[in-house]
Design goal:
The complex is a heterotrimer of chains A (352), B (82) and C (363). With 352 residues, chain A is an alpha+beta fold. Chain A is built from nine helices and 15 strands. In chain A, strand 1 (57-61) and strand 2 form a beta hairpin. The radius of gyration of chain A is 20 Å and the shape is globular. The N and C termini of chain A lie far apart (43 Å). By secondary structure, chain B is α+β, with helices and mostly antiparallel strands. Chain B has one domain (5-81): SH3 type barrels, CATH 2.30.30. Chain C is of the alpha/beta class and 363 residues long. Chain C is 39% helix and 18% strand. Chain C has 16 helices and eleven strands. Chain C has a five-stranded parallel beta sheet. In chain C, strands 4-3-5-6 form a four-stranded parallel beta sheet, sandwiched between helices. In chain C, helix 7 links the parallel strand 5 (132-139) and strand 6. The chains are: A alpha+beta (352), B alpha+beta (82), C alpha/beta (363). Chains in contact: A-B, A-C, B-C. The interface between B and C is large, with 40 and 55 residues. Chain B: This is Hydrogenase assembly chaperone HypC/HupF. Chain B: GO terms for molecular function: carbon dioxide binding; iron ion binding. Chain B: It comes from Methylocaldum marinum. Chain B: One of its GO terms (biological process) is protein maturation.
Chain lengths: 352, 82, 363
Amino acid sequence: MSEKTENTLSACPMPIGQYTQIVMAHGGGGRLMQQLLERLVRPAFANPHLDQRHDSTVFEVGGNRLAFTTDGYVVKPLFFPGGDIGKLAVCGTLNDLAMSGAKPLFLSAALVIEEGFPVNDLARVLASMNATAQAAGAAIVTGDTKVVENGKGDGLYIATSGIGLIEHGLQIAPAGIREGDAILLSGDIGRHGVAIIAEREGLGFETTVESDCADLSGLVGQLLRAGVELHCLRDLTRGGLAAAVLELAGDAGFDMELSESAIPVAAPVRSACEILGFDPLYVANEGRMVLFVPASAVGRALDVLHAHPLGHDACLIGRVGSVGKGKVSLRNPYDIVRVLDLPSGEQLPRIC
Amino acid sequence: MCLAVPGQILSIEQADDPLLRSGRVDFGGVVKVVNLAYVPEAEVGDYAIVHAGFAISRLDEAEARAVLKEIAALEDIADEIS
Amino acid sequence: MKYLDEYRDAASVKALADAIAGRQTRPWTLMEVCGGQTHSIVKHGLDRLLPPSLSLIHGPGCPVCVTPETIIDQALELAARPDVIFCSFGDMLRVPGSQHDLLTVKARGGDVRMVYSPLDALNLARENPERQVVFFAVGFETTAPTTAMAVLQAQRFGVRNFSLLVAHVRVPPAVETLLSAPDNRVNGLLAAGHVCAVMGYTEYEPIAARFRAPIVVTGFEPLDILSGVLNCVEQLEEGRAEVENRYGRAVTREGNRPAQALMDQVFEPVTLSWRGLDAIADSGLGLRPEFAEFDAVRRFELSAPGTASAGPCRSGDVLTGRLKPFECPAFGTACTPEHPLGATMVSSEGACAAYYRYRRDAA
């Protein structure tokens, strides 16, 4: 038996790094996760839709262009400053649709509940999901509920899927990125990651940092209505700003440069990062996006962003360079340029 | 490296046992309870370097100012030359 | 943040870099001892602001990197025990032993917890009286007093299910070893600011005199580091070899006396084999016999650490400054942060990891 297992393993396109088992870092938004997706997940399902390499896939049905996406949510704690797992799950799917410029229509929700989970907490989460979907003009129209044994889940896991309608003629996707495009950021970074870490046991932070968890579909709708020429959008999640830009640079095949001093980080987020030895560029967000627009559209895009509560700190953070291997450079305040790299997994608090 | 960051002492909890002397320390908006047994001289309002949950050194403001002043003097020299 | 932002000012950084270039007339090689300084230098690109004939060597100052493989194997053995909650600082979790790392033990069901402070581990012991809580005590003299405090509190409050796997290291014996090497190229040293905050710098005075090498106590921010470099270059140009303090806001000559006292009460110097280096007398800290009950090796009757296998990793040459990370044949190919051959690639403080992350284009 053990011999057979070993043979199976050696035939596998893994190991990823040295690991023959999944470790937490495989879900951390870093290089290990990218390797898992590229070497195991994508090949397993290979098809042209998957090759759009975007947050949602876009396809045509009866003359209408639709966007479709899905996501799973695990978060500890389930309730955190600025949100809860329900709001997170709905916002995440709304945002994945919005990144194609789609207007969200219908969502599904699958709940995996751990035996012993308080019904009151479940009611709170469901209410939060519904309110978030309604505010975006969408509805949760189908779902599933499963209960697992005590100890087999962290209280509650949620999976959501969504369908949205594309009512514009743009191709908002990695393939839309062009040389010379400006890279805009919709707000300050790192709030979600710090809010979550601060709440986790053991660290004992007292902070007022709230997660940035928010639905960006309204803001994207306003940009489209204002006629801003959007080439690509990407919401920032695990792996932070760095992972999002690196992924896009690789997928679109362009080198890019960011200016470190242009990237806004709120004071308490920066402080928490100093204490833990984190780089805010790699810390998770749940309500921020990067926008790729032609240089001529920067002024108009920033006007629309600044007028919206989710974009009032928006700024220009970099430019798309020439066709290349997807190298992302970061120019620091001392005018030194260094290469930005994917973290290998989740950042670990450092002692040294 | 011995990652350690400066923070300002907001309050001090005097314990019967000197090993348990602790306080709330503000790191630019993030507040944490920190063991202050190794900085018995530190008072509320002082800044301290904190490592692994312990204040290991009270920061000396005069020393800090002196070094920054020397560096500022270098900048002035540079300005004069250019 | 006060006491951080002022020390990152771009105009001042430029002025200091210019002052260094103006002061230097001959090539010099400096070593920053501390991994935190290495991280800061490479991240901010400070070495690129310096004249090419001034080279910086990245010393062995990352306690995570130098923790011997044999002790990591003991950690893995403890962490895999069902009765143990194994507590570690975050950056130790990825460091490979001879087989795998703590993250793998965790994935296989080991109860491995990341803690911010040794006191967090002690609290876990109090909250889980039916389990054994082991704290992986790594770090230089900066961290040793925090571990000493956890041991003293455990003793005072009778916490019987708490113990330590100790791998603390001391800086001065390692520095002496490096400077004594026949092929030593280091002309001056930047001493680790936070180690000195605890220990002061009297220990370095005989070393500076014996090896005729200036030693400058240096902090971690860009201005601190450049100011340390400037002082070191000035001393070398003037033919001086003294210990000077450029981190006066945090460091005094005597250091932190209360912290030293508790450290001495709990620990005694022992011989230790550093990863990548050979055994160095008095370079480690072990629990004194009065505190033997808190020694996890004893409590769990672990076998004494054997000798580590010599692999293809040349971290010893990197740690002693004989090799720049990108000069190693394995760098970035056989050896990456996901698949590290040695500890200098594992810890983000390690010289190889810092180069991989910030400077792959230099290779």
